[in-house]
Amino acid sequence: METIAVHFFIIIGAMFQSLTGIGFAMIAGPFLLLSINDSYAVQVNILLNIILSILIAPKIYKNADKSLLAKISLGTIMGIPLGLIFYSNIDINTLRLLVGYLVGIMAIRLIYTSQFSSSRIKSSVFKELITGFVSGILTVFLAMPGPALATYMGETGLYDKKTTRSTILLYFLFAYTLSILNHIIFIGVKYNAYKSAFFFAPSIIIGVFLGTLLVPKVSEKLFKILIIFVLALTSVALIIGTLI
Fold this sequence. Notes:
Mean pLDDT: 85
Number of domains: 1
Largest sheet: none
Shape: globular
Strand content: under 5%
Oligomer: single chain
Order of helices and strands: HHHHHHHHHH
Number of strands: 0
Helix content: over 70%
C-alpha cells in the first residue's frame, strides 16, 4: 500500500513539474523519504528529476531564455560546493526549517508583486548569479533548485508562462546532472539509489505525459497562481515536516 502511495505522488509531482516547472521535490520528496528512510532518498529524488528533465527537454529547449539560463547555471556551479558541505555536516532538519521560512517569504513576495507591479525587482547579472548560487546549494542538499529561480522570474515580471516553464525545466537538467556528478565524486551514490530510481521511472513517464497534456489548458493567470501555490505548499511542508 505504501509503495502504491509513493507511485501516486510521484505521478502527481511529475505532472505538476511538467506543467509549471516546479513541484516534484515538494510533492514526491517527502513520500520518497518516508518510503526509503535513508539519506540516499535525496539522491533518488535527483535521479528521478534528471529522468523527468530528459523527457521534457527536447520539447521546451527553443522556448527557454538561454541568456538567463547561462547566468543562473554559473551561479549554481559556485553554489554546489557549499551545498555539499551542508549535505555532509549540517543537520538536515535545521536547514529544512530555514528553507521552509525562506520559501514562504518568496511566496508572499510573489503574491505582493502580482498585485502591485511597481514592487517588482529589476533584473541584473548579480541577482541572477545569486539566484543560481542559492539554487545550487538547495539542489545538492534538498534536491530542490526550483523555488529560487521560479521566484526570481516571477518577481521581475519579464517572463511569460512558456518562457518561465521552459527555462526552469531546462535548468533542472543542468543542475541535477551537475549535482549527481558531485555526489558520485565526493560523496558516493548507493546502488539502491539507482535501483529505486529505475523502479519509480514509469511513474515519472506517466506524470510527464499528463502534465504535457494539461499545459495548453493553463492560462497565464492560472500559471502564476499555481507557482505561488506550489511555493506556499513547499514552505508549509518543510516547516511542518521538520517540527512534527
